[in-house]
Write a structure and sequence with these properties.
three-stranded antiparallel sheet, ATP binding, nucleotide-binding, ABC_transporter_ATP-bind, Nitrate/sulfonate/bicarbonate ABC transporter ATP-binding protein, alpha/beta, single chain, globular
Length: 261
């Protein structure tokens, strides 16, 4: 029986799972043919549970390197990253959304989500359908990645990340490969999901407008340090062409370029 035929048995998506991130004295170097290259050093960041934080920086500033350390893909040269649930426990599940969706082309949308739960007998097809519903793909359960647009593929990637009920959602420029109209739609949908599920989001971007539209807080990485840490004063929902938005965007851009002064 197809996934579509069993959609009436879906389960509700509920979550109050959000964790804090503590980045302490973090440093990273790489050995190169020309010697040791320092990416950053002595980085200290505390991110509160349920907050939406954007990390900005120019190409080569170390944004993706930091995210890879936070996600435990890379080992830091010094310092550590700690996670803490609201009950004080430290066993935190991480969700990952990449620049490209990284879907298995031979699997349907439902199967791409079920794949990450292959060792969890309690995660059913109906759970996968519910997570696809969450990202607006209720009509696409049985479609393959090649039958989806780029935006729809990225929605599957977001659904897959959320299906593990992560305490922290890590997002590495997830909308940068999409056209602006699709990216704008996905930003709005992401904010709706974030407000519904109360996840901690650590989001890497090079797009200032995107960062201001999405985040509570903007961290700017350059020359090996966090040189600006701005609280976003704008209330939600945010209109990118409003006077308040444009004023804060100007302030943020000046801060972004301040390291060049």
């Amino acid at each position: 029986m197809s996934s579509q035929a069993r959609s009436d048995d879906r389960v509700a998506v509920e979550s109050e799972n959000a964790a804090a991130i503590h980045i302490e004295n973090l440093g990273k170097t790489f050995d190169t043919s020309e010697g040791v290259e320092e990416v950053f050093s002595d980085i200290n960041i505390d991110i509160e549970p349920g907050s939406f934080v954007c990390l900005l920086g120019k190409s080569g500033s170390g944004k993706s390197t930091m995210l890879n350390i936070v996600s435990d893909v890379l080992e830091p040269t010094e310092g550590q990253v700690r996670f803490e649930n609201q009950d004080g426990s430290t066993d935190v599940t991480l969700g990952h959304v990449f620049q490209s969706p990284r879907l298995l082309p031979w699997n349907t949308c439902v199967n791409n989500i079920e794949y990450v739960h292959e060792n969890n007998p309690d995660y059913t097809e109906q759970h996968a359908q519910t997570h696809l519903d969450l990202v607006g793909l209720s009509e696409h359960y049985d479609k393959y990645p090649t039958q989806l647009s780029g935006g729809q593929q990225q929605r599957v990637g977001i659904a897959r990340a959320l299906s593990t009920d992560p305490g922290v959602l890590l997002m590495d420029e997830p909308f940068s490969n999409l056209d602006e109209i699709t990216a704008e739609t996905l930003r709005d949908e992401l904010l709706d999901i974030w407000q519904q599920l109360n996840k901690t989001v650590f989001f890497v971007t090079h797009d200032m407008t995107e960062a201001i539209q999405l985040s509570d807080r903007l961290l700017m990485l350059g020359q090996g340090e966090i040189y600006a840490d701005l609280e976003n004063p704008l209330e939600r929902p945010r209109e990118v062409d409003s006077d308040e938005f444009l004023k804060f965007r100007g302030e943020a851009i000046r801060a972004f370029h301040s390291i060049e002064d």
